[in-house]
């Protein structure tokens, strides 16, 4: 952290550029950040190889269909050229036209995968149209397997590429955008905290250019150097940045943001605007341009309707099937608990649920029977803040219970709560009912059913502070969707296997 005590006041540098048009190719060639070029080249190779491999697999599986043709007199050389060269090239061109290689969508968020799926639909429609218009007799099984296999393999290749990119960003900070934040100091620090929460996002603030005067920042600790009174583009070049992030009110002066965009044309520096609209997911935000003024329209959270009905149906079906499949595991865990410590197998505790209704949560017992009596003597050793008590080495937990907690198997009986409609598979974790009503922002967690897993669990679990856990829960409440639930369930598998933050 740095203390802002003084600034080197410099006269504003005249802009090096005033908006002379440049071609898209010239701007691309001058772009400061170039990490995406080898990454996109790797994706091109992976996508082409995935489409070719899918064609080869389909031909091998349905070789009896005369290599895809029902008429043996067709030239097999032409067929293999189409299967292993033209069709994979068609995939790559279609992906490119759907902007699946756009660097803005690579490495974070679901937009990249959505564009791959759009490209898959386009390729399937194109192949069907060409086959129909040319009256080509094709094996439907071969073509269907090749197209479906290519889509699946391309998605898997994108996941592998994204995993590799995230590892590089976390380990050494490479393949990232170096940002200069412009705005008032509080606004810039808020944006700094938001973009640095997830190193995999690849956004690395390297400097802050304040607009609210020197006195407002004097003596305040900052994580990066603070500048003032300089030309922003010159500052970006000085600190080696490639992106300018305009924070909050810095873009409120009429014409200022437009002039900055003109100044950056042809410089290779990206311009992004970070409005004071935090913890709202992209699908809820839409731009409505009115007479040249881009208005951000924020939709209300979806807390009812068909999507919620589908979520409830998915919860009940998955819980019922899960309980049937896990009966042998439940019996084995019950025996291990009774051997470790005589007493009940299950632990039931009042928790606050949907709309403030209280219910009793089901869990496998992991502590000795006198755990509640011993709690008072351990309160001063609590390692978390907020409403929960957590200790990494809690003496009240017996050995088998420690394993159950580390593997999260103690949570499995909550499938009973899901089946009864008291909980959901995904949602904010249910909190104890000891303190009665929740106050302030915490109460908003009660707008949805509590979940067995949730966003805070896949983001750090017990290692997070109380404020951060509440922020994640509120983010989920405001932005949940079925696709988001499936994403959290998938991430839960990795978190459970890694035993991260579980104790």
Automatic annotation (TrEMBL):
InterPro entries to which the protein is assigned, alphabetical: Bact_transf, EPS_sugar_tfrase
Example of a GO MF term: phosphotransferase activity, for other substituted phosphate groups
Compartment(s): Membrane
Assigned keywords, A-Z: Membrane, Transferase, Transmembrane, Transmembrane helix
PANTHER family registered for this protein in UniProt: COLANIC BIOSYNTHESIS UDP-GLUCOSE LIPID CARRIER TRANSFERASE, SLL5057 PROTEIN
Region (Disordered): 1-23
Pfam family, one: CoA_binding_3
Principal subcellular localization: membrane
Residues spanning the membrane: 39-58, 78-96, 116-135, 141-161, 317-339
Topology of the protein relative to the lipid bilayer: Multi-pass membrane protein
Top-level taxon of the source organism: Bacteria
Protein name according to UniProt: Undecaprenyl-phosphate galactose phosphotransferase, WbaP/exopolysaccharide biosynthesis polyprenyl glycosylphosphotransferase
Domain Bacterial sugar transferase: 311-497
Family indicated by similarity: Belongs to the bacterial sugar transferase family.
Cellular component terms (Gene Ontology): membrane
């Amino acid at each position: 952290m740095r203390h802002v005590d003084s600034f080197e006041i410099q006269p504003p540098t005249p802009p090096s550029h005033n908006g002379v048009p440049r071609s898209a190719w010239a701007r691309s060639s001058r772009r400061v950040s170039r990490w995406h070029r080898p990454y996109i080249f790797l994706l091109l190779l992976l996508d082409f190889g995935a489409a070719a491999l899918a064609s080869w697999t389909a031909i091998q599986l349905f070789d009896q269909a005369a290599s895809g043709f029902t008429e043996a007199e067709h030239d097999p050389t032409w067929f293999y050229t189409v299967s292993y060269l033209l069709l994979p090239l068609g995939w790559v061109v279609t992906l490119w036209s759907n902007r699946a290689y756009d660097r803005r969508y690579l490495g974070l968020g679901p937009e990249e995968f959505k564009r791959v799926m759009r490209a898959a639909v386009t390729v399937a429609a194109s192949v069907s149209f060409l086959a129909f218009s040319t009256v080509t007799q094709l094996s439907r099984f071969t073509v269907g397997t090749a197209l479906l296999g290519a889509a699946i393999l391309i998605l898997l290749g994108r996941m592998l590429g994204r995993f590799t990119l995230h590892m590089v960003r976390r380990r050494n900070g490479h393949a990232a955008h170096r940002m200069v934040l412009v705005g008032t100091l509080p606004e810039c620090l808020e944006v700094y905290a938001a973009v640095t929460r997830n190193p995999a996002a690849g956004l690395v603030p390297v400097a802050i250019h304040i607009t609210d005067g020197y006195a407002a920042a004097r003596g305040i600790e900052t994580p990066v150097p603070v500048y003032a009174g300089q030309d922003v583009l010159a500052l970006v070049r000085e600190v080696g940045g490639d992106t300018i992030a305009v924070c909050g009110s810095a873009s409120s002066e009429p014409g200022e943001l437009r002039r900055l965009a003109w100044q950056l044309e042809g410089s290779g520096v990206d311009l992004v605007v970070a409005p004071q609209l935090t913890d709202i997911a992209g699908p809820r935000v839409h731009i409505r341009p009115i007479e040249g003024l881009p208005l951000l329209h924020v939709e209300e959270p979806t807390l009812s309707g068909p999507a919620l009905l589908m979520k409830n149906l998915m919860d009940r079906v998955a819980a019922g099937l899960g309980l049937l499949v896990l009966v042998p595991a439940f019996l084995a865990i019950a025996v291990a608990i009774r051997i470790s410590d005589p007493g009940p197998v299950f632990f039931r505790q009042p928790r606050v649920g949907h709309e403030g209704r209280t219910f009793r949560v089901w869990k496998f017992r992991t502590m000795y029977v006198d755990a509640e009596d011993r709690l008072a003597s351990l309160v001063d050793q609590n390692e978390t803040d907020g409403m929960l008590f957590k200790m990494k080495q809690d003496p009240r937990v017996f050995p088998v219970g420690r394993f159950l907690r580390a593997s999260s198997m103690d949570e499995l009986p909550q499938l009973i709560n899901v089946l009864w409609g008291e909980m959901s598979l995904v949602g904010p974790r249910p909190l104890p009912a000891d303190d009665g009503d929740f106050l302030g922002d915490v109460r908003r967690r009660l707008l949805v059913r509590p979940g067995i897993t949730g966003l805070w669990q896949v983001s750090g679990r017990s290692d997070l502070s109380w404020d951060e856990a509440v922020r994640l829960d509120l983010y989920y409440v405001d932005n949940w969707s079925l696709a988001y639930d499936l994403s959290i369930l998938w991430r839960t598998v990795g978190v459970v296997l890694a035993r991260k933050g579980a104790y």
